[in-house]
Predict the 3D structure of the following.
Amino acid sequence: MADLKYYDVILQPVVTEKSMNDMADKKYTFLVHTDATKSQIKEAVEKMFEGTKVAKVNTMNYNGKTKRRGMVYGKTAKTKKAIVQLTAESKDIELFEGL
């Protein structure tokens, strides 16, 4: 297990049509480090975005896809996605405001 700091856990936000619709329910989607646990993701969101309080975290692991270039086979990197549900009294995340 890697020694992850809170700023290493969240890699980037996921901006899709479905994730933007979930923002009305205070659900935000992020790509996270593959070794990050739910408690580490919760801590990272609360520290990186002031005034937020996380109610729960759902995570999904994705294996890399097999790709081919000529006769050579390879795999893309595996990823982990986290959907973070904020509490009702929590502030919204400003990162998504202009989208």
Remarks:
- The chain has one domain: 6-89.
